[in-house]
């Protein structure tokens, strides 16, 4: 993967913390307003002016999400530590929209996210091609403020909105043969022009073990910073696995397949020496070309130590009991 420095941005291009926090307060108040959550619910007037202001500087339109359950206390961190929205939406890895950090935001307008459906296949009793709205309808949307640690040794703190993946999978009744879950990004070079290049073998693929997929931390995200996902962040639906390097968090998902065998995954296929299937954040296992002991939080000048499992060891270390994490990296 490429490593580039973040672009320097003008002061007035940064979404202020106050703007973001106002949206959070709105989320909190709307969480009790109703039980059903869905992407693209009618805009609420209190949000509209703010939304229009954001949309002006945003290359792909987003809309506010309502009826979101606020982040539970363990994921509510000091507000000043959340990465500014501009950085999280303009410093991206989405090779289908270009290989520089700035390309995805610039090219996101090519990606059309409505209508959208997800194929649920393989070892489930109820497979199907499911419209996004149907997939989400039974579940309340939840906010989760997670650290994102890229394998390139930078990190961010992002307030996602989504549904635990396990809840969604249970809807389709996985069979006893479902040991792994494979994910695929949309393949359409007109919408994702990077697929006209050979940067990776397309479509982008990722995978998890079934117990990783069922862990309550694993999120299918449909929003961030109070809004639906912008194209560059993987609209309309992406994975977020906060204890693994960011490349596991596959964007713009169109297929979820439950299966018996470990799936092929794009970066592992590209270079298995550098990108393992597990990709658990591990400061003790260096990438062959750089150390993983420290990371640069986007917006900070100095580096900080990287934490095992990106700081989520209490929740997930047990999944790997008895495994040699140097070999299964
Ligand atoms: N998903 C797809 N389809 N294509 C990609 O290039 N990049 C991955 C991951 N998901 C990528 C992807 C990498 S390397 C990272 S670090 C995260 O997305 C970045 O997510 P962000 O741009 O929302 O911060």
Please describe what this structure looks like.
This protein has 329 residues and is α+β, with helices and mostly antiparallel strands. The chain has a single domain, classed as Alpha-Beta Complex (Sulfite Oxidase, Chain A, domain 2). 19% of the residues lie in helices and 20% in strands. Strand 8 and strand 9 (227-228) form a beta hairpin. Residues 3-23 and 25-58 have low confidence and may be disordered. Bound molecules: ligand MTE. Residues 1, 92-96, 148, 150, 185, 204, 233, 246-247, 249-252 line the site of ligand MTE. The site of ligand MTE has 17 residues, from loops.
Query: What's the CATH H-level superfamily name?
Result: Oxidoreductase, molybdopterin-binding domain
Q: Could you say which structural class the secondary elements and strand pairing correspond to?
A: alpha+beta
- What sequence of helices (H) and strands (E) makes up the elements? HHEHHEEHEEHEEHEEEEHEEH
Number of continuous helical runs: 9
Quick synopsis:
This protein has 329 residues and is of the alpha+beta class. Helices cover 19% and strands 20% of the residues.
How are the SSEs placed, and which strands pair?
Blueprint (H helix, E strand, L loop, with lengths): L16 H15 L13 H12 L11 E2 L15 H6 L12 H5 L9 E6 L5 E4 H5 L4 E9 L4 E11 H6 L9 E6 L19 E5 H5 L4 E6 L2 E2 L9 E3 L12 E7 L6 H5 L23 E4 L6 E2 L7 H4 L13
Ligand MTE binds next to loops.
Features:
single chain, five-stranded mixed β-sheet, disordered N terminus, Sulfite Oxidase, Chain A, domain 2, 329 residues, eight-stranded mixed β-sheet, 13 strands, binds ligand MTE, alpha+beta
């Amino acid at each position: 993967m490429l490593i580039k420095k973040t672009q320097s941005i003008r002061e007035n291009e940064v979404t202020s913390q106050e703007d973001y926090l106002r949206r959070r307060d709105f989320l909190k108040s709307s969480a009790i307003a109703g039980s059903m959550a869905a992407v693209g619910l009618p805009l609420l007037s209190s949000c509209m002016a703010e939304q229009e202001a954001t949309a002006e500087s945003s290359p792909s339109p987003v809309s506010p999400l309502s009826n979101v359950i606020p982040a539970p206390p363990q994921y509510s961190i000091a507000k000043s530590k959340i990465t500014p929205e501009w950085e999280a939406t303009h410093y991206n890895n989405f090779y289908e929209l270009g290989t520089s950090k700035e390309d995805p935001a610039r090219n996101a307008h090519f990606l059309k996210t409505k209508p959208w459906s997800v194929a649920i296949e393989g070892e489930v009793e109820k497979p199907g091609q499911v419209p996004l709205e149907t997939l989400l309808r039974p579940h309340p949307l939840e906010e989760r403020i997670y650290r994102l640690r890229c394998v390139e040794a930078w990190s961010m703190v992002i307030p996602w909105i989504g549904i635990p993946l396990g809840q969604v999978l249970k809807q389709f009744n996985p069979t006893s043969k479902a040991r792994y879950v494979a994910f695929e990004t949309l393949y359409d070079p007109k919408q994702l022009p990077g697929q006209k290049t050979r940067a990776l073998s397309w479509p982008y693929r990722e995978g998890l073990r079934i117990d990783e997929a069922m862990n309550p931390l694993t999120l299918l995200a449909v929003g961030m910073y109070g809004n639906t996902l912008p194209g560059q962040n993987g609209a309309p639906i992406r994975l977020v696995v906060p204890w693994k390097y960011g490349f596991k968090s596959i964007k713009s998902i169109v297929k979820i397949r439950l299966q018996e065998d470990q799936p092929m995954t794009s970066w592992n296929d590209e270079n298995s020496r550098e990108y393992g299937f597990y990709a658990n954040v591990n400061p003790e296992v260096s990438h062959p070309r750089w150390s993983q002991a420290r990371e640069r939080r986007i917006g900070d000048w100095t580096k900080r130590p990287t934490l095992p499992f990106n700081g989520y060891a209490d929740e997930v270390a047990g999944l790997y009991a008895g495994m040699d994490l140097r070999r299964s990296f």
